[in-house]
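Subject: sequence -> C-alpha cells, single chain

Hey, anyone have a minute? Need the predicted structure for the following. Not urgent.
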Amino acid sequence: MKNKTRCGWEGNTELMIRYHDTEWGVPVHDDRKLFEFLTLDAFQAGLSWAGILGKRENFRAAFDNFDPIQIAKYDGQKVQQLLQNPGIIRNKSKITCTISNAQKFLEIQQEFGSFDRYIWQFTGGKTIVNQWQELSQVPASSPESDAMSKDLKSRGFKFVGSIICYSMMQAAGMVNDHLVSCFRYHELAGASKSRS
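Reply:
Had a minute. Here:
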C-alpha cells in the first residue's frame, strides 16, 4: 500500500491515505452520504480537510449520523448543546446553517424524488473524468460547481460557494480529479465507464 503512486495531497497520515484510496472520487448516490459531504465541506470552509476528517466520527455522533430529517428538527437547545461539544467545530453560524440546509435538503428530496437526482444533474448524471498531470492543474471550482452553487443558494442553502461545491463534487465522485499517474485514477475511470 505504501509504494503505490498517489496524488500527493493525501500526505502520510493513515486517515488521509485511506480516504484518498477508498472514498475520494468514488461516485456517491446515497442521499444521506451526500448530505454528509455537503455538511462536512461547509464546516471545512477556512480549515483543513485533514482536521475535519479527524473529527468525522464526532460529527456523525453529534449530528445523528447526518440524518437530515432529524437535523431539520434541531432547536435552540440543541444548538447550545452542539456549541458545548469539543469533538466538533463549534462555529454557531455553521451549526445553524447545517439545520437550515437540512430543511432545504428535504425540500429538494420532495421536489426531485431524491437529492441524488437533483445534484447529479449538474454533471449530466455521470462522472466528469479529468486528465490532470500535476496537482497545480486541479481547479478549485468549475462551471458545473458555479451552476450548482448558484442553484443551491437560490434555494436558500448557505455555505455553498462554488469552491465548497467543487470539493463536494470531488468527494462524491461527480468529478474524477485523481492525477493520471495515481493508481486510483484508472480504477475509477474504468468503473465510471462500465456504469454508463
